[in-house]
Queue: 2 jobs
Job 1
Amino acid sequence: MSSPDLTPHPAWLPDAAFAALLTRTVAVLGEGPCLDTVRAELAGAPSESVADAQLVVARADAAAIAGLNDLPDAPIDGHVTVRTADRVLIIGRTDADALRGFYALVRDEATARLTGEPLPHGTRISVAAEPLRMLDHWDNIDVHPWMGQVERGYAGGSIFYDAGNIRSDLGRVRAYARLIANCGINAVAINNVNVHAREARLLTDDLHEVVRIAEMFRAYGIRTFLSVSFGSPMMLGGLSTNDPLEGTVADWWSATTADVYAAISDFGGFLVKADSEGQPGPFAYGRTHADGANMIAQALRPHGGTVLWRAFVYNHSQDWQDRSTDRARAAHDHFAPLDGSFAENVILQIKHGPLDFQVREPLSPVLAAMPNTRLALELQVTQEYTGHQKHVCYLAPAWSEYLRFRMDGERSVADIVAGSDGARGGITAVSNIGADMFWTGHPLAQANLYAFGRLSWDPMAEPIALLDEWIALTFAAASEAQLPRIRSALHAMMDESWLRYEAYTAPLGVGFMVSAQNHYGPGIDDYEYSKWGTYHFADRDGVGVDRSVATGTGYAGQYPSPWREIYESAQTCPDELLLFFHHVPYEHALHSGKTVIQHIYDSRQEAVQQLDAVDEAWDSLADLIGTTALTSKYDERMRELLAEQRRNAVEWRDQVRTYFFRKSGVPDPAGHVIY
Amino acid sequence: MSSPDLTPHPAWLPDAAFAALLTRTVAVLGEGPCLDTVRAELAGAPSESVADAQLVVARADAAAIAGLNDLPDAPIDGHVTVRTADRVLIIGRTDADALRGFYALVRDEATARLTGEPLPHGTRISVAAEPLRMLDHWDNIDVHPWMGQVERGYAGGSIFYDAGNIRSDLGRVRAYARLIANCGINAVAINNVNVHAREARLLTDDLHEVVRIAEMFRAYGIRTFLSVSFGSPMMLGGLSTNDPLEGTVADWWSATTADVYAAISDFGGFLVKADSEGQPGPFAYGRTHADGANMIAQALRPHGGTVLWRAFVYNHSQDWQDRSTDRARAAHDHFAPLDGSFAENVILQIKHGPLDFQVREPLSPVLAAMPNTRLALELQVTQEYTGHQKHVCYLAPAWSEYLRFRMDGERSVADIVAGSDGARGGITAVSNIGADMFWTGHPLAQANLYAFGRLSWDPMAEPIALLDEWIALTFAAASEAQLPRIRSALHAMMDESWLRYEAYTAPLGVGFMVSAQNHYGPGIDDYEYSKWGTYHFADRDGVGVDRSVATGTGYAGQYPSPWREIYESAQTCPDELLLFFHHVPYEHALHSGKTVIQHIYDSRQEAVQQLDAVDEAWDSLADLIGTTALTSKYDERMRELLAEQRRNAVEWRDQVRTYFFRKSGVPDPAGHVIY
């Protein structure tokens, strides 16, 4: 038996992306693990004196000592690039800044090759817009009986853990750190927010293993976080309570946290999911979430650590018969009253929508409701509700929409979470990677991880331009003739893929309608009579959830103007959110001019039809298969998944259309087959 | 920590049931393991000479030698009871017959105490109506990640297996053998029909462990069967094919089977689920099920063994969009053409209905279609679709209906499967027991196991009378004053419980509508767009599956007259099967006079209301709790489950009613709250 090739795909950092740089003479100045990383990256290039090197990467202090003057001050969390005809200087205030500057250079040069637009000479300063640029891993050490090892993971097992332990070989972790450092990430939480007993021990018994992982990340300027259980004092410490106002509990956290920092001096802090979907929390003791978060924050504060506290708190034992309760209200109801009461090293982590990472939701009103609290926006790179990395679904256009959205008509979400001096937040997301050889299951899902990182650095970046960057890097081995064809094909497949996915799944913002078993494929009524609080209320006359103030759950009133007024009325509510905010008859006319029922019939049909063009785009690259840029393994995976996407999309189309035909009795004048 | 009482509940064989017998003088005559069992049962009674003993249990040959003449010939698979004023004789042709006669005596005496009807003097001959009286265990050696150890088991783990191996202590197996011997069972298959790799090895590597289990059963007159995989030659034998017409395959089965009989001379045979829900089978080689079954039968034949071949074969990857396919047709389509082509030691095992153990289905037409094949009726004692042994659901009334049903207007199902000389079959059922201290989860579910055994011996027995027997035995420790109250309460709870369960779940024979996750609780649309072929086709106008010949799938035509005509028309089809056979408007009038929609609303309401009387019946025994007859543990379990049954029944009522209200738009004139 020949041994299979287990080398992971290089994702957006193939050797070819570095090849041109390695032909230059280089000098790397300064100390620090990230500059050692730069040195390793440039090991193949000839060294040269600072004065003569064609490429200089330096920490600011070392640059000054080496006589590189007349440079602007290196910014906090950013880098300076000085490009002249025969030389590029990259200067960072810290070694991590310098490394990120170096990777930016790799990206920029690859992209210039793709677009043909030369890089401008002169001095450019790039500063991260979001201080926190984080990936959360929902990885478990043990394999869960039906969830697998990575909760909502669609790319194989964990790169951190194997067979109930931390991996002895952390090579994939190092490769991962390199990939995400390249796109701007500076923080990673390495275990599931649902902290089970085995994983809880990462905080204590297995801390020495976390040290090994943190070392990998440190060389790429990334701080390590742990998800911790609010129940740790009882679970791990043998205490009789987890009450945040008990001195023994606070003492336990302080002592435990001090041990963590003694082992990992640049440890990031803790991510906590409390009082949520069965996790323990402060409610059990009659305490607020501020009480809970602040107590843990106090333990972290002497060490410069941060608590990320999730706002995903709702009653998951709702009574579907009680139409007045509304899960969408929960985060605002729970957290808005606590604004201003969180400690300075607490960041409240808020999912982008009020429900749960649906393909279409309005922005969470909590984002506008807590001006005196540090906030982080939580996104989901892993495609829990967007096709399990079996469907092409490029999510950057969605994220871009969220980040640009002006919650109060003025400040963008990106600005709100970035915060201001002393109270800064950022963006965090659930990672989509695993031990899969393509990292992400679907090879094109790599682009989501890449774009997430880039948007966390520059939220106003254009999703289509980010896709160009990703293509330029990923296919750097392509020839001048091949590259434009790859670019064209992938844009045809990916640019509109999020809207296409939306169009064949749940209509008009109503959400869910997904298989309750695993959140993949249609299950129109799967959540309709459930305790999860996620309904569409379709009956023979109409569909949608009335969340107006006047006649519904009042959720629309959680928004500031102008959104409260816009969402309140079915006449002004945007089509794509209509059924999220209103229960309307099937004959209700959309702004598009179509009725709701006709929209449901047509858009599902059109979306599936568009998959023809997607397949054709991939087919157009057939003659490139087997070249360095595009391996036959890549092609095999792509074809397998494109077929699965089509099968599943047809199933969505047919189930949704049949469901609404059976309910409404309205025939489809377009004559589509409805079963 | 005090050690918990782990003694299993005695079920229907408490010591009190034997107490009166042990006061008599006894003589036990003859050899054999089952007579040793009788001797052990009577060890507490004073021995006496045959001439003077008040109770004599004897094998016929020993009785003759001992001079007990003037007795009728002991029948095959039965026993003779001779009762006079001062003496009872039990005579069996074999030691097992004698043991079953002895247990019948225990039962009869207990029942007489309950009913107050004295046992008649004279000679009675009791003969089993069904030759095969079998229990199938869907037990796995390993614990399945989400199914647990016992597939569709609701009573804890397996009594046979623990932690991946055969239990070293088989005490529970012995106790179980005693219980089921008491009610007439003579065969047990000890592992799941879905044979996984670990369990396949029971046939070979672990045969010595099967020997231990067979020994337990032998002492109670029960033959041991194994479920085997049709894929065994490849999986266990290293062969390159499982083709039944390949000589190497037949040779492997012959050699392997010979090894089994060398170790277990009274081994029963094999149970095979082939080409069903992913199990391997003859279809892969273009062979028929007769080819497959006959090849294995040939291996068993020299040893007197039997193949039980399941007819549960259907396409479980159906296209819901194709309304012409019908899973209900599958068994008849596959097997009816094979009538007469099975070897003489093959028994075709047929589920009672054409789908899958639903609370209401018509009888399988295969039962009428194979006069030249030995048949067994398969029932399900484990409550997969009837409340998971959390709901009170006494199933004997259902089984009795099936057994008495005249498939062709003449012969009953009981007679058909009993067969005639040389081609006899019987009844088999999936067991409902596990390592639970009450054996069956719900203590009252013990009655289902008991009644199944008794019906397999006497299919015409009255379910209500069998319940009396079970009560009389189970509560033998109750005083004369207590016993009538227990009898009255349990009849109030159990007599109508099957119909009540039907009335709050899926209506009018339409089936399923059950949670696809685990088959517990409502999931009205869970199977509606699935590959499993189980639909109700509810739309805004009506509901039900058109299985008529004239306009539907033609399934009704698989029945002989008069049923094909009766089922063909919605006018003559019995109400309880209407939606199984017809798609009708919600306003369709039932024979009851109600419309379909009103029936759906009303019957669910009434069924839940009836639970008040069930609770009251149990409450009426409150003062008996803590007595020998009724322990507090029994009461705790009962109360916990009665509460769960109510919660779940309310959920069923509300989801079914709301679902149909939303679809039909018909308000409930009775004014029930519909959400």
Job 2
Amino acid sequence: MSSTYGEKLKLSIFGQSHGPAIGMTLDGIPAGLPVDFEALNAFMARRAPGQGSFATSRKEADQPEFLSGLVDSFTCGAPLSAIIRNTNTRSGDYSNLKDCPRPGHADLPAQIKYKGFQDVAGGGHFSGRLTAPLCIAGGLCKQWLGKKGIHIGAHISSVAGITDKLFDPVSPDLAAVQDGFPVIDLSAGKKMLAEIEKAKADSDSVGGTIECAITGLPAGLGEPMFGGLESKLAQIIYGVPAVKGLAFGSGFAGSELRGSENNDPYTITDNKITTITNNAGGILGGITTGMPLIFKVAIKPTPSISRLQQSVSLDRMEQQELSVQGRHDPCIVPRAVPVIEAATAIAIFDICLLDGKF
Amino acid sequence: MSSTYGEKLKLSIFGQSHGPAIGMTLDGIPAGLPVDFEALNAFMARRAPGQGSFATSRKEADQPEFLSGLVDSFTCGAPLSAIIRNTNTRSGDYSNLKDCPRPGHADLPAQIKYKGFQDVAGGGHFSGRLTAPLCIAGGLCKQWLGKKGIHIGAHISSVAGITDKLFDPVSPDLAAVQDGFPVIDLSAGKKMLAEIEKAKADSDSVGGTIECAITGLPAGLGEPMFGGLESKLAQIIYGVPAVKGLAFGSGFAGSELRGSENNDPYTITDNKITTITNNAGGILGGITTGMPLIFKVAIKPTPSISRLQQSVSLDRMEQQELSVQGRHDPCIVPRAVPVIEAATAIAIFDICLLDGKF
Amino acid sequence: MSSTYGEKLKLSIFGQSHGPAIGMTLDGIPAGLPVDFEALNAFMARRAPGQGSFATSRKEADQPEFLSGLVDSFTCGAPLSAIIRNTNTRSGDYSNLKDCPRPGHADLPAQIKYKGFQDVAGGGHFSGRLTAPLCIAGGLCKQWLGKKGIHIGAHISSVAGITDKLFDPVSPDLAAVQDGFPVIDLSAGKKMLAEIEKAKADSDSVGGTIECAITGLPAGLGEPMFGGLESKLAQIIYGVPAVKGLAFGSGFAGSELRGSENNDPYTITDNKITTITNNAGGILGGITTGMPLIFKVAIKPTPSISRLQQSVSLDRMEQQELSVQGRHDPCIVPRAVPVIEAATAIAIFDICLLDGKF
Amino acid sequence: MSSTYGEKLKLSIFGQSHGPAIGMTLDGIPAGLPVDFEALNAFMARRAPGQGSFATSRKEADQPEFLSGLVDSFTCGAPLSAIIRNTNTRSGDYSNLKDCPRPGHADLPAQIKYKGFQDVAGGGHFSGRLTAPLCIAGGLCKQWLGKKGIHIGAHISSVAGITDKLFDPVSPDLAAVQDGFPVIDLSAGKKMLAEIEKAKADSDSVGGTIECAITGLPAGLGEPMFGGLESKLAQIIYGVPAVKGLAFGSGFAGSELRGSENNDPYTITDNKITTITNNAGGILGGITTGMPLIFKVAIKPTPSISRLQQSVSLDRMEQQELSVQGRHDPCIVPRAVPVIEAATAIAIFDICLLDGKF
């Protein structure tokens, strides 16, 4: 429940935005897996703030400190735990949130659920900052999957309605995603950046979509019904803040096709059975087909905007205007790309563990 | 895993399409809840085949037989179990599926996963027929939620690209959905039926989308991160065969809006805090806002079509054409409407149990 | 929770003593495992009533009907479900239990928990009859473990203080257990039977202990802390009615030894490391040592006795005498022997699944 | 699995004896519960080493540092996490354990399970030191249960066969347990201490038993079968290192009684139904009876002894003598008393959460 995930793997995430530290425990990892710290730091850096005009200027020291689970850079079978100290703690920026909830944030639902005891500073446990420990866990799982030939890559598929080129669903080229601003088509990326700049200038924000592909998955992974890969992935991906939609393969567009168009015909290439198209997104009946697994995620526009918004004073029970102060991403989509990869890696690693693949 | 769902509630679904029986066990239900069998049968009838031109002409006796969990029509606290006998068992219609997998079906992934031991008859455990026990469980949960003022309603929001009117996200009128063919706008429904007829005449099929709304949910239900309502609902809804997309509130369309447009401004009506819009679909940070919970589901076109399709012979490892025989729904969307309601009711009931609401 | 068990395996048990049927669903079983129905029936027969003076004269038709999960006597990967019809349903024998709870039974706790809605007939879901579906599940797991060289055997280690010979903890001879009345030492068995007869003549009952051994387990199974084998076994064994104690290896007696006596010294035999003694009962740190796994279970005397006992009338809130009518086992221990084997087999099978052994 | 526990509560424990830190995350705690740090430290001190002749002279700084879950000493609804830094890290004392496993320890099973990648220093994740984070979690749960009138107390019921007075099962006086060396009868305590001294002088160790009682539990808590209180408690208590036996109420001794002796007769006192005896230990059918919950735990003698023991050299595959060096408790039972209380508190708190009691 809540901030735990997994069946054979057990991920537990803790921390609040302005508390002493955030962190995670990953239980159930086999012993003997190597950890490449440099690769992990590079992965974490993709999520880190302060990278460009699209991101907040806040500085976060996202270097994880490992507390357990490793001996000489190899997993030892014990639960792996790591923390990141919060340097920016208990700031007074958020003091009025208990009275005046931010539209689009969990402030008011949390206040009701936790009867006023919730940590409001920086959004508390609801903060996007909690995706940092998710990236520690997912960054490691991604490394380990990579060693088995299972690769995960994502890119911004749209921002503010401007679309990137999509992956070829039959044979996605994960390496085509650019460093820095993660798009395939740089010219689309430029237009997106312009939209982000415009929103920022308007004290506003924009959202977008992310496309993710996994290659190298064998056929036959996953379980029927509620243990299907779509269910497993959806549970963790909807745990990423700001995600409001998720669709596999042809998804919503596929619902407008005919069966004869949406079904993926089988063929034989090099004595291997594949499908000519991949509208199924690599999953049928919850189980991998052996084709690339492909899905798209909808990310809502950052709710924190400095524009005036209508809120209410809970104390006085009257209408009140609000301008959200602080440094916020005018578009969270670029930084969400590695987070989606991380969440995906965790789910796929758990599926692989359940299937005896590690 | 697999065919079980829930945290405090434990649902277990079993059966294959042509095996002796299908059924379900629902563990964790409080004692003393009444069962209205007539209402349950009416609910089951909405899913039953043979209702019109859009559905298969197969007859299924979907009357559940309760084996445990009840005393005099009240739950007794023991696991509730019910089965439906399959009358159409072990038919020979599907004998060649082990050699020639149907495109768009789980035949080949299942064959790989289960090493050839899977039950191929009628799709086995992957059959849409398994949604009947899901409807028993969900039909009951829906009754019990109704008694607490929590109501669930769904309708066809599109078929083959033809769209129905949508629910008002702030105040959805569940009663506006028509009996029979579940749309709000009858004229749109007629056009959908025409499209379904056309597909049928072409030995083809069409897909569509379903919109679902839940009213009467208190604010503060759900957990942060992976225990959020989106995660809980997604896990069960992706367990429904043919679902390939799911989006909450403004969903994918919302990703094209600006924050100032997508955020729902707070207001006070009758001394109660509500939001003027409901782009959040009733969920922020995984937790109910007190506004109606609204989401949309993408259903792929029925993969079983009698049109010739490209498949392969696994024995001879060569290309082979296939025409799927048998009686199949040219459009599964209408019958999927109560199934989505059922899945939703189960997830919401579990959330309510976890929250001490029953 | 409640009547479900397992991590990768998901067992769900349902039914009440006098309801329409009892049964179980076993989800998560690999495909391709053969079912030997004859062996299963022989196993079920060991639990069945009506076998001798020590058991009730009730007749139960314990023949399981399989509803799902099998194709031609092999598991097909879908949840395996089986039921046993209750022939003796809704008898009036138990009508006064709602007013006058039986000492030593769950009548009163259940009445409080379920607010009077519980099924009182025959003890409802608390009946020992629910061990029949446990034996279906466990009987199958035992077969499958046997094929991997993992064997489970139990015997009555004491009745009313009269003790049987114990297994050699280093090299238990499971075949030494007698058919019929399951003891190793027939002369001890005769004395036990005499005690049971005496208790019966006195309208009373006796309890006892069961010793269980598992051979053929590889070293390294199980997880640390709460996932240890003792924890896994304890959870299911305490789910067997009437179990009130459980101890592994030297157990309570070992707590009186010194470390130098209780530690098992390592030795090398045939180039294999073993221990000279087995006070650990085959488990250290929750993990198998490769030595036989051995434990003992305490079974309380059957609470149903026709002797007059002190109870109360709940309606009148006054003292009331009670004589429990009906046909009851004066000693449940012999019939509990296969039940303990079944519970053990389920736990071990789940551990093996988690470890990729199937 | 492994180092996680709980249904509505989710406890995750991490750390190795000589790693950077040990700690725990407790997810699922309601918001608004106060934390009394002084009481927690006093509770932790009862487990801390260096308290007397019976304990190791090691010094451990067991002061927990809270990383998340609290605002101003109240729980905020987010996962509560705390760590304890290890000051004694990576010592060379244990370097030869990979070659020569200690009898009675998990060294060899762990080596096999983790293929040589396990952390051997100080027993790694299998160390008794991991009971410190268990005591953080349990110490807090105990505080919160106390505020609802549910009290937990334990004492040494025996050491080396010397027995303490037991609790009155119908009305246990938790306050009768002495501070310091936790027995009821000081003269028995003195004899136990003498036995411990003797064992120490002999470079040996002794074991014992612990009796635990919980008062104030309402009737009706717990679930049938595998969700019963015995199962819930057993799972966590067997997660405590060195526990090899567990028995509820009359336990193993009760198995020698007749039903007429072991059944607890009902009576009415002050218009409340109670039982005259409490052989059931407060649990029938897995559900609380409203009487005190009572159980006994067997703790094996400390396996670490400096006496020469027979082990083997894994490298050379030949017999080798071993004397375990380092500072070890000649009797772990006194320090295990608060650990058993902590484990119990966690299980009972989870049961209470599931039942909507918080």
